[in-house]
Model the fold of this input.
Amino acid sequence: MLWIQCIVGCLVFTVMILPAQYKDPIQMIKSYPPKIIERVESLPQYKDTIKQKERSHMTKKILGLFLFVIVFALLAYYAGCRGFMDTFTHVFTVFFCINMYDLIVLDLGLFCHSKRLRIPGTEDMEKEYTDPWFHVRGACVGVLLGIIVSLLAGGMMYVLI
Done:
């Protein structure tokens, strides 16, 4: 059950992220390297768009965190987890697998090499787009977020069961 949840989680994550990013890369501007964000902020065609995207991005992340806790706790419950440690381990494993998939397949594989994800006006910033360390640092932050989500899901399971 755990590995099925990992695979389905990767597929769901891909469907949530890729279509929107391919349609309009500016939607994910806060996930881009800092120098690219700086350049985009300096371009007149994006002047009004950036602030709207920043608010939307933060709102989605906060809501996503709470939603992840609930969804992952439910997944752990249906997988048979009934205690804090079982839930923590289960949720962290699923979260970690999705995080590594995001790093290896989506970030290092697609983002670094897909010209369709280049924001118009930044096409000359090849070095920034292909910098693997930006994505590795992001994955490390993802591990910390995974620990937080896992702790909250484990705590939720402990309190409710």
In short: The helical segments are 2-23, 34-42, 47-78, 84-111, 126-129, 132-160. The chain is about 75% helix and 0% strand.
